[in-house]
């Protein structure tokens, strides 16, 4: 077996075991980069030993088990700190890490949007203020995270937002998205004369069914 | 309001109509003066009774004739900018415009 093939096999094995820890795929590109670099210098010569070990420490951060978006953000925070410590001047790793955290932040913002679909749809109206508070608190954290220039801090603050969303879901027992609204039955039909000479339907019998596929507003007044 | 909606968006699918209560036929000329929206004369309370409305209700229907909401012009005076804007927003929201 060639040395290159052996390295690729090592990479695949390591990537499979490390990537399985994450809840989303946002961290995959940076995990892949770390493992590829480490495989490329396996076994390391003495001059490569420091980098080899540093890559190993970053890879171990990614190997932590994750069962949620908040967990992924915790992993991302630790890995970002490690990359900042060990590879600050690296041309690729900090950029890849920042992209991964931004993707996780976007996922958190999307989760907040999904949770907001429950507004006005709770079985118990008393839960509405708690839902609103959870959404507001999460928004505060997510906005602060988006404005933070430090990648690790961005992940840490976004995680707080995620935890607020998770807590709101758990407190209110909300799973997934709200059911689609029940279809509203059509209003009773009638057909009465249009008596306005200036109207496009002047003189015709007009029915609500003439306005299917439109939004119609029916004013009930007294001409007198 | 209809003119304003169509001026802002000629492709708008919002349509406004009025229905005069049975017994008020003698005053239709007053109601239609200067207006080009359909003004329907109810007969035997077919519309008013069938929809169980209150005087000055604006009943907003969706694209399948399902009731979206009711906006009463006695409760909400649309000569006031806030109430006018609220009704316009309801219509646009229903139409997704």
Give the end-to-end Cα distance of chain A, rounded to a whole number of Å.
Answer: 98 Å
The SS-based structural class of chain B is alpha+beta
* Global structural class of chain A: mainly alpha
Q: Number of helical runs of chain B?
A: 4
Number of strands of chain B: 4
Task: Report the principal-axis shape of chain B.
Answer: globular
Largest beta sheet of chain B, briefly?
2 strands, parallel
Order of helices and strands of chain A: HHHHHHHEEE
Radius of gyration from the alpha-carbon trace of chain A, in angstroms: 28 Å
Strand content of chain A: 5-15%
Number of strands of chain A: 3
DSSP helix fraction of chain B? 25-40%
Q: What topology emerges from the helices and strands here?
A:
The complex is a heterodimer of chains A (224) and B (97).
Chain A: H1 3-19, H2 28-40, H3 49-62, H4 69-86, H5 93-116, H6 128-147, H7 151-172, E1 192-194, E2 205-206, E3 215-221
Antiparallel strand pairs in A: 1-2
Helix pairs in contact in A: 1-2, 2-3, 2-5, 3-4, 4-5, 4-7, 5-6, 5-7, 6-7
Chain B: H1 2-8, E1 14-20, H2 28-32, E2 39-41, H3 46-51, E3 57-61, E4 67-72, H4 81-95
What does this structure look like?
The complex is a heterodimer of chains A (224) and B (97). The longest helix of chain A has 24 residues, at 93-116. The mean pLDDT of chain A is 91. Chain A has helices at residues 3-19, 28-40, 49-62, 69-86, 93-116, 128-147, 151-172, and strands at 192-194, 205-206, 215-221. Chain A is built from seven helices and three strands; from the N terminus they run αααααααβββ. Chain A has a two-stranded antiparallel sheet. By secondary structure, chain A is mostly helical. Chain B is of the alpha+beta class and 97 residues long. Chain B has four helices and four strands, in the order H-E-H-E-H-E-E-H. Chain B has a two-stranded parallel sheet with strand order 1-2. In chain B, strands 3-4 form a two-stranded antiparallel ribbon. The mean pLDDT of chain B is 94.
């Amino acid at each position: 077996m060639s040395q290159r093939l052996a390295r690729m096999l090592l990479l695949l094995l390591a990537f499979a075991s490390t990537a399985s820890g994450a809840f989303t795929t946002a961290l995959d590109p940076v995990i892949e980069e770390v493992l590829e670099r480490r495989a490329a210098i396996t076994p390391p010569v003495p001059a490569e030993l420091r980098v080899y070990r540093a890559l190993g420490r970053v890879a171990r951060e990614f190997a932590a088990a994750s069962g949620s978006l908040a967990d992924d953000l915790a992993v991302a925070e630790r890995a970002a700190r490690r990359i900042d410590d060990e590879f600050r001047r690296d041309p690729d790793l900090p950029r890849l890490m920042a992209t991964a955290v931004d993707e996780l932040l976007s996922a958190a913002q999307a989760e907040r949007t999904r949770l907001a679909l429950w507004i006005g749809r709770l079985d118990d109206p008393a839960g509405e203020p708690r839902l609103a508070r959870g959404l507001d608190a999460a928004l505060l954290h997510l906005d602060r995270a988006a404005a933070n220039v430090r990648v690790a801090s961005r992940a840490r603050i976004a995680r707080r937002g995620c935890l607020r969303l998770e807590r709101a879901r758990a407190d209110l027992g909300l799973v997934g998205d709200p059911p689609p609204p029940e279809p509203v039955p059509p209003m009773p039909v009638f057909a009465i004369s249009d008596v306005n000479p200036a109207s496009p339907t002047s003189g015709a019998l007009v029915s609500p069914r003439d306005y299917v596929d439109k939004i119609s507003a029916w004013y009930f007044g007294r001409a007198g | 309001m209809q003119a304003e909606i169509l001026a802002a968006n000629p492709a708008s699918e919002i349509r406004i109509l009025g229905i005069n209560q049975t017994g008020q036929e003698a005053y239709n000329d007053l109601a239609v003066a200067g207006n080009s929206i359909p003004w329907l004369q109810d007969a035997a309370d077919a519309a008013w009774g069938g929809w169980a409305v209150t005087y000055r209700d604006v009943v907003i229907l969706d694209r399948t004739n399902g009731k979206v909401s009711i906006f009463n012009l006695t409760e909400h005076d649309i000569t006031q900018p806030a109430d006018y804007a609220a009704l316009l927003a309801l219509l646009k929201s229903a139409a997704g415009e």
